[in-house]
Design brief:
With about 120 residues, the protein is an alpha+beta fold. About 25% of the residues lie in helices and about 25% in strands. It has a single domain, classed as 2-Layer Sandwich (Alpha-Beta Plaits), CATH 3.30.70.
């Protein structure tokens, strides 16, 4: 059964193009390591909630937009192997070097997690 990684990020709205270019590069790496699909979504209709919402979850400011993303993997084993490889000090992949490819958002406010699908249509 497939496995899904989900992400919610606050990205400075002025960095939309920079984020898009960064995502295309990093998403290519995910697919090289076995992801079957990667989707990056820029906020379009994200209402402010009374108790919680996407923006509050990542402490987005007025000059930031929420990005909702997911990565589909064929299974958890493939995902775990890919993540281990990407986080390895032995990778030596310049595309993952933050000095050469800086992250265009505050990574401390990124929310992520791995999920096992329970319904797929």
């Amino acid at each position: 059964m497939s496995y899904i990684d989900g992400f919610v990020i606050a990205v400075p709205t002025s960095n939309k193009q920079e984020f898009t270019e960064y995502a295309k590069l990093v998403d290519t790496i995910f697919t090289e390591y076995g992801a079957t699909r990667v989707v990056e979504c820029w906020a379009d209709d994200v209402p402010e909630g009374k108790v919680t919402d996407f923006g509050k979850a990542v402490q987005a400011t007025k000059d930031e937009s929420v990005v909702f993303s997911w990565i589909e993997w064929p299974d958890k084993k493939t995902r775990d192997a890919a993540m281990n490889k990407m986080m390895s000090d032995d990778l030596n992949d310049e595309r993952m070097d933050p000095k050469k490819n800086p992250i265009p958002f505050d990574g401390k406010r990124l929310i992520f997690g791995g999920f096992r699908p329970i319904v797929e249509l």
